[in-house]
Amino acid sequence: MASAAELEVQGSRLVVSGMLDGSAIKEFIEQLGSGAVRTVVFEDSFGGTAEAAGAFADAIRASGVQTEVRGQCMAACAYAFLAGKTHRFGYGLQVNGIMLPVASRPTAAELAVRWRGDEAHKTLADFTPAPVSTTSAPGSGSGSSATVVAVAATTTAAPVEASAPAPTRDNWQPEHGVLFTASPSLFGRIYNTYYCDGTQGRDFSKCERLPDADPYKLGVLTP
User: Fold this and answer.
1) Whole-angstrom distance, CA of residue 215 vs CA of residue 190
2) Quick check: is 157 in a domain?
3) Which one, out of 1, 3, 173, 211, has a CA that is 20 to 30 A from the CA of 112?
């Protein structure tokens, strides 16, 4: 059983680890509302629900904070990560990776725009029911927060394991998607992108490597 999300304040950074199941969204909103948080750091978050992804993303988008990944950020975490004003991989010797769920293998043309700005929000709608996919516009303040609180009530009631699909849509599979990785080397970080069809489980070495899919060019990471 994957652990539920845990929050830890480190100065102006709010570290989020564990599964985004909605159980910590109320505290998360309160922390962002304090005005003291400048960066949300996702650290080894391996799954969650599509509803929780939308809730965390709404809160991040409304507050205008930056996001960062240390270690692995899968499924729900990855979409919340994209909502940051800037979204980056953390420094250090660890291998960083984000897995963005997809309903089907994206074409080269889809990759070029899929995770840029509002397109990332539209993509999440593939996995969420109508009430979540019609949330307030970015930066709308109180309207967005109200939506997040409503979503939190539903996601808290029925947490889902990282390895299980969300109950609302059967195509939310944390191990099916596009995986972006950054590995440290003597010559700097090496970036790779893969398409994983879900049959590989956690053995991502079996995923298909995608050429010409630099995460910075695709908007998944910002400078």
Assistant:
1) 11
2) yes
3) 173
